[in-house]
User: Which sequence fits this backbone?
């Protein structure tokens, strides 16, 4: 069973996102990791695919699940639950891979499920809590949004995937 939804930043959705940003709002793809709901910039998303077991790479860190062949492109796959220290959850029919375009590189991110695409006005987004002295790494959290009864953690997926500890993108250039 291969589910694949293509999202093109150059297509209609990308144009709407660019227009929304100019008007003081932005679109976010929302997904779940355990009990938490996260949002990432829709313009970073290339497509959403059903989870398939990647080919493991020897000596890779635990959060790097391996690689998959996506139409001739070898794509590293990161399990965000492991990377962000969430409880381990069984892979099931809802588990998906969000294929991202990060700094010109294609990367896959395993999440529990994808919820929807939300347009958030800037006034709906609150700053991330200041936890500089805490043992919590909030460098990749760009804000918190409350939508109806849902608390949404907004993250800079590009900064997370491009971070030096991920080892996916050469940051020396």
Assistant:
């Amino acid at each position: 069973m291969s589910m694949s939804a293509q999202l093109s930043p150059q297509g209609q959705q990308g144009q709407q996102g660019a227009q929304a940003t100019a008007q003081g709002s932005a679109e976010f793809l929302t997904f779940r990791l355990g009990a938490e709901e996260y949002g990432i910039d829709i313009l970073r998303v290339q497509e959403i695919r059903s989870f398939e077991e990647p080919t493991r790479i020897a000596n890779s860190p635990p959060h790097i699940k391996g690689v998959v062949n996506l139409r001739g492109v070898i794509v590293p796959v990161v399990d965000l639950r492991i990377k962000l220290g969430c409880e381990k959850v069984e892979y099931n029919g809802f588990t998906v891979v969000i294929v991202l375009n990060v700094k010109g590189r294609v990367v896959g991110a395993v999440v529990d499920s994808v919820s929807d695409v939300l347009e958030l006005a800037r006034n709906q987004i609150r700053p991330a809590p200041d936890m500089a002295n805490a043992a919590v790494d909030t460098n990749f959290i760009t804000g918190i949004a409350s939508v109806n009864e849902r608390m949404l953690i907004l993250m800079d997926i590009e900064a997370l995937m491009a971070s030096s500890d991920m080892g996916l993108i050469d940051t020396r250039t």
Observations:
- The chain has one domain: 4-162.
- Helices lie at 12-22, 80-83, 157-162.
- The domain at 4-162 is CATH 2.40.50.180 (OB fold (Dihydrolipoamide Acetyltransferase, E2P)).
- DSSP finds three helices and twelve strands in the chain.
